[in-house]
Amino acid sequence: MLNDPMVLAPVAEAMRVEPEKRIRDRGATEKAILKAAKSLLAEEGFQNFGINAVARRAGCDKQLIYRYYGGLNGLVEAIGADLGTWVKDRIPEDTGGMFLLTYGDLMERLSLLFLEALRDDPLVRRIVAWEVSENTEQVRRLSEARSKALANWLDRMRGSLTPPKGVDVVAVNAILIAAIQHLVLSASAGGQCAGLALKTPKDWEKAATALKRIVRGVYG
C-alpha cells in the first residue's frame, strides 16, 4: 500500500507545489512582520517592542522574524531602511507644478512637504520625540536613517541652486526642521504650540503661511 503509485502520486505533486507556495508567502509574511513592527513601535515605543509582541501582531511564528530579519536588531534596521522609502513616498521629488528657480523655492517646498508628512505619520513623530529623549542605539539608527534620507533628497533636488551669500545653510535648515518638528509634536500632545492653536485645517494654514514667510525672509 505504501508503494502504491496511486498513493504516491498525489504526495509527490504536493511536495512539488509546496516550495512554490512558501516562496510566494515569504514576501507577504515579511511585509506583514514589518508592518506589525512599525505599528507596534508607533503605538507602544521600544518599551514593549519585542520579538514575541511583533509576532503576535503579525500573526506569525516568531521564528520567522529570526529567519527573515535575523532578530530584533535586523528588524530595526529594516524599519530604518523603510524610512528612506518614507521620504521618497511622502516628499516626492517632482515639483508639483512649482518652478524651483531659487534655493528659497526649494526650501519652501521641502518645509511644507515635511510638515504635512510628519503630521500624517505617527511612527516618524515617535522617532522625532525619541531623538531628544532617548539616547539608545536603536533610536540613533532610526534617526540617522531619517536624517540621511532627507539630506539625500535635498542634495538631489538642489542641482545648481545656491543659497544667498553669507547664510549659514546648515544652521538655518536645522532650525527650520526643528521648528517644524516641534510644531507637530506640540500639536499631537496638546493641540497648540506657544499659544498658536493647531487643531483645524485653518490653524495649519496659518502655520504654513508663517513658515513660508520665515523661509523667504532668510532665502528670499
From TrEMBL:
GO molecular function: DNA-binding transcription factor activity; transcription cis-regulatory region binding
Cell inner membrane as UniProt keyword: no
Keyword annotations: DNA-binding, Transcription, Transcription regulation
Coiled-coil region list: none
PROSITE patterns: HTH_TETR_2 (PS50977)
DNA-binding segment(s): 50-69
Every HTH tetR-type domain range: 27-87
The keyword Cell membrane appears for this protein: no
PANTHER family assigned: HTH-TYPE TRANSCRIPTIONAL REGULATOR BETI (PTHR30055:SF234), HTH-TYPE TRANSCRIPTIONAL REGULATOR RUTR (PTHR30055)
Protein name: Transcriptional regulator protein
Higher taxonomy: Bacteria, Pseudomonadati, Pseudomonadota, Alphaproteobacteria, Hyphomicrobiales
